[in-house]
Design brief:
mainly alpha, Growth Hormone, Chain: A, single chain, 246 residues
Length: 246
């Protein structure tokens, strides 16, 4: 058990055994990861992605709120005449995501510090998911108005998440899109980078599995609530870490 815990810790919080190394994946020369607890915070964010994309795809008309590549493809299918895909859901998700990403970029530039911006963006993301939870509780998810509100709120939150995580520049840990992660995992030499990529993939899979199971059995509310709990916890830790990074 101790060996497994050490392996996981080394993968998430690597120590640089070669102070002269110029490899960007290495930690700093003092033997600690300069990103601190941030790698561990990104793993539950990948879970959040799986949870909300399960709800959006299964419950909001075959649309993603985190995976914008899928929405571009879905929009093409819908415009070509696919009767099972909405012509407005994908554009709304894209617009909402871009709005969230733009907002996160503005916050990062004004604050001038990526960790503080990440904490602020995660807090706003949690607020947006809380609003989505209220919509799901009061209006459900089947009406066009409720679906539009949920897509807009969740999509904006995921845009905030993706842009703020990008600003952190934590290597080999992604929370939204896994195509490049899978490519690197398959093509590169195994090592700590591969471990982080593998963890991202597993976390998003488990989030999607849990989100789909909850949605298909009891509806979207529990999955959205679970995402809110995770985001709130991450925001609290991120705020504390941004004030005391060591």
């Amino acid at each position: 058990m101790k060996g497994w815990s050490r392996w996981i810790a080394d993968g998430l919080f690597p120590r640089n055994t070669n102070p002269r190394s110029t490899n960007p994946h290495d930690a700093n020369p003092h033997g600690t990861d300069p990103h601190g607890v941030l790698p561990a915070l990104l793993i539950p964010l990948a879970l959040v992605t799986g949870l909300v994309d399960a709800v959006s795809y299964l419950g909001l008309g075959r649309v993603f709120v985190a995976n914008m590549t899928g929405n571009i493809v879905f929009l093409g299918f819908a415009l070509a005449g696919d009767p099972y895909l909405s012509k407005w859901a994908s554009p709304l998700a894209l617009a909402s995501f871009v709005t969230g990403a733009w907002s996160a970029g503005q916050v990062t530039r004004r604050m001038g510090e990526a960790r503080r911006a990440f904490a602020a963006a995660t807090t706003v993301h949690a607020a947006l998911v809380a609003a989505a939870l209220v919509v799901a509780l009061l209006a459900g998810h089947e009406g066009a108005g409720a679906r539009a509100a949920l897509i807009g709120l969740l999509g904006c939150g995921m845009g905030l998440q993706n842009a703020s995580v990008r600003g952190l520049a934590v290597p080999d840990l992604t929370t939204n899109v896994l195509t490049t992660t899978l490519t690197g995992l398959a093509a590169d030499v195994p090592g700590r980078a591969a471990f982080r990529r593998f963890v991202s993939i597993v976390a998003m899979f488990l989030g999607a599995l849990a989100g789909a199971a909850l949605h298909l059995t009891v509806g979207p509310v529990p999955a959205v609530a679970a995402a809110l709990v995770l985001l709130t916890s991450i925001a609290l830790i991120a705020h504390r870490h941004s004030r005391h990074p060591t």
